[in-house]
Design a protein that fits this description.
4 copies of one chain form a homotetramer.
Chain A: E1 5-9, H1 15-25, E2 29-34, E3 50-54, H2 60-74, E4 79-82, H3 97-125, E5 129-135, H4 148-166, E6 172-178, E7 181-182, H5 185-191, E8 200-201, H6 203-214, E9 224-227
Helix pairs in contact in A: 1-6, 2-3, 3-4
Amino acid sequence: MGGKVCAIIGFGPGLGAAYAEVFKAAGYDLGLLSRSGASLNGAEPTGKTVRTYRCDAGDPDSLKSSLASVQSDLGEIDVVIYNADLAQFGAFEDISELQFEQSWRVGALGLFATAKLLGPQMSERGSGVIIVSGATAALRGNVWTTAFAPSKSAQRTLANSLAKQLGPKGVHVVYLIIDGVIDTEDTRTNFAPNESDDFFIKPIRIAEAALMLAQQDKSAWTFELDIRPFGEKW
Amino acid sequence: MGGKVCAIIGFGPGLGAAYAEVFKAAGYDLGLLSRSGASLNGAEPTGKTVRTYRCDAGDPDSLKSSLASVQSDLGEIDVVIYNADLAQFGAFEDISELQFEQSWRVGALGLFATAKLLGPQMSERGSGVIIVSGATAALRGNVWTTAFAPSKSAQRTLANSLAKQLGPKGVHVVYLIIDGVIDTEDTRTNFAPNESDDFFIKPIRIAEAALMLAQQDKSAWTFELDIRPFGEKW
Amino acid sequence: MGGKVCAIIGFGPGLGAAYAEVFKAAGYDLGLLSRSGASLNGAEPTGKTVRTYRCDAGDPDSLKSSLASVQSDLGEIDVVIYNADLAQFGAFEDISELQFEQSWRVGALGLFATAKLLGPQMSERGSGVIIVSGATAALRGNVWTTAFAPSKSAQRTLANSLAKQLGPKGVHVVYLIIDGVIDTEDTRTNFAPNESDDFFIKPIRIAEAALMLAQQDKSAWTFELDIRPFGEKW
Amino acid sequence: MGGKVCAIIGFGPGLGAAYAEVFKAAGYDLGLLSRSGASLNGAEPTGKTVRTYRCDAGDPDSLKSSLASVQSDLGEIDVVIYNADLAQFGAFEDISELQFEQSWRVGALGLFATAKLLGPQMSERGSGVIIVSGATAALRGNVWTTAFAPSKSAQRTLANSLAKQLGPKGVHVVYLIIDGVIDTEDTRTNFAPNESDDFFIKPIRIAEAALMLAQQDKSAWTFELDIRPFGEKW
């Protein structure tokens, strides 16, 4: 319990794994929270420096209980990355009220619960970082984002509100506007099977940006930055 | 059941009453939905042209049931004004998870339920108007808008998504960015007791703008406009 | 010199003519400024209630001189509509430094000169309206808007700055985000020859919105609204 | 002429010097352009790896001539940092047409001239970085930003347009939204003499962010990020 601790909410293949790889390489102990309780590259789920937790980010009690376990297992959380997302897409006729609510629970309520638990602790210590994996849908609605845009925009203005509350206390809140398709086995297979390498964002590059932001000096903090592949039309 | 019908969700003193007055004067029959079941200026709650309904905008079943009653009592709804709002303000330590959820239910889920019920009907007729009373908090979070900003921004991007889905089918969705304090007995007494008349937005003027927007020709529709008093700092 | 006076900078076929028609019908005397000195529907260019002036909106001296003539001919200007625009499109290799500058002169410098002349007078009277025909390009740059976006965004933030300076003095500044192709003989022939009626914004509808905004009560002013055809993808 | 070359337009005490320090430490040869022709820490102005040039960023011919000299002296420019700015503040009555124009020349026209010269070369090589020192005033106008906001917003949407044109060709355009007062001898003395250290942004931290952005992998480029001190109200 000596190193810095990074908790990743919404660990899984793709971006979650990239965050884990980059922050581990930077010396952080990791608490990995996911619905499935997946571990990192087949590693022991209860290792000394990397531990995995099964939880539902859309359920505040489950989430706060897992974050408390991270703290008792690894120590105080220095960086928390909120990467949970349902990413449900559809026109309003296709989205049920339950789906609409679940999107919001995982996108916004879980971030609120995270802040309720960790915000006061980080404020008291005068340091801490909260990074949120956001999306362009946070800025506007489109035809297929009936559930996704409201969830992401609620998440973004919550992060914005938290940044203004916690910033003066030394806690850095960051919102990443990820604008493009992340390169994962799933997106390569199911979402964009015919696209070339250049079409995708490499998740490791997003994680590197997150690490840089987590290390910014407090005289020059970034709240929001966009990330997209060089050839993206936007 | 011959005239045009306007349903106002979130009827009450202030802006709700102003919408009712302006749309009634323009010849609309009114269905007034509120938590208290309040009526218009002491009028008969089950009149031929103005009827009142008790419902909870944050409960989709209650809301849809009341909207269905409006339709069976007064006829097809031509204009629906979504004016429900909890307006809970506070730092993240002061807002409970329940309050955070209730804000979202009344701000965003209720609008979604409204669209689920009325969107398909309006699309089929090729006409209809959905007007939402929004706020500047929809665009960004601030220190005291931990619950309010996420609720309003979810509402705004949902309205934006609906506008893009329903517009091509002839249904006009409008989002009002109300930027200032509305002149009501409550705000005069409790929120800004020492301010002069110039400080407040007159609710009747917001309602007039809404009526104008409801009457726009479909070659030149407005999705969003801001409204504030002339002396407002912004 | 008894009625209200509206000066239209950038009068011409399409939107300029629509502004003239709508404000004339509302009882305004008109001062019509254009590069060609065109008159309204072949009317006498020096009539008692409608007068035309030849000027270059990108040349502050020319513009201010013409506006002064409007005032000596028709009386104090109550409403000024800034509708001048070069609308030059192209990639950065295709746009010359001269074109880049001309776009800015007509889009932004002319509005500044207008405000320098009329702002103090309107402030002193405690009333007046400045309406600007803007565009979505004011909000972001795109591939073909190397010259147009910088011109329109400069225009928009200038209007925003003026609104905050002049608003508390009773002068209403409005920025119209026109998002779509205006229906004119030119756009029908040259820009979008194969589009149906539904593709275009009817200029008269934009002018009607402008008139409504010019008449807003000062307790509920709009600075910005968007206008687009119902089927527009955005 | 073997190392990478960074040209800094608008070199001077404060942020310009910080860019120079950070990019020099990262191994770049430097071409420093300023109105005064100032050199770096009293160094020889015509050294092998750092050279200084006198030019007016608001004059396209002067600017392009100096950039051409950088290239003949040091080699192809890999990174150009556009840091020129007049930063003139005032209400519209206080700003002359000449000042309004000069602000735009230095803020927007100079960036356009830079892109006209370097854009095609960078496109042909398939690499290059253009970083612009922007400001929050690029997003909206305020009472004192009659000249500054139009200049910065024109600069931002130009950068945005260039990013979309040059990105697919491998050239990375970045816009920094600097939101706060930079710590310099001038701002400490004249602008905010009574503020504590925490009030200011350390220029070296902005330059470090710029370096990180210049090194982003092209699968995950950032166009825009904001930078402000942790205690800033925004």
